[in-house]
Design goal:
The protein is built from three helices and five strands, in the order H-E-E-H-E-E-E-H. The chain is an alpha+beta fold. Helix 1 packs antiparallel against helix 3.
Length: 126
């Protein structure tokens, strides 16, 4: 039996590895499709962490709907570009979402590779 997901040290280790992979990564979270946070590593200035988690889940669900409606295949990721950085979301199985935020200068190729690697590991845990 798996440990309680909300306190699973394996999930925390995966998130810590993502953050450690680049100094440009600002935050990372695993969120249930229901919008509840499984685990996150976010700076304190993100006061509305639960709202961010819920919005992340909704964005992926909308991305899946749009790709289905446009017959674009399976959703790979949702990418949001802000003036000061990037937000990337991807599904982790059918029940969760991985969200990464990074500064403007983040190398997107590396970010996408780290995200795919982490999502594959997380899929076994959430």
């Amino acid at each position: 039996m798996l440990p309680d997901q909300d306190h699973d040290p394996r999930i925390k280790a995966i998130l810590d590895d993502i953050v450690a992979s680049s100094p440009t990564i600002k935050a990372v979270a695993v969120v249930r499709i229901s919008g509840l946070t499984v685990m996150s590593v976010m700076p304190a200035y993100i006061a509305a962490q639960e709202h961010v988690s819920a919005m992340s889940a909704v964005m992926v669900l909308l991305g899946e709907r749009i790709t289905r409606a446009m017959k674009s295949g399976t959703l790979n990721k949702v990418y949001v570009k802000g003036a000061d950085g990037h937000i990337v979301l991807t599904s982790v199985g059918h029940d969760a979402v991985l969200m990464i935020t990074a500064r403007e200068e983040a190398p997107l190729g590396m970010l996408f590779v780290e995200m795919a690697r982490a999502a594959a590991k997380l899929k076994k845990l959430v």
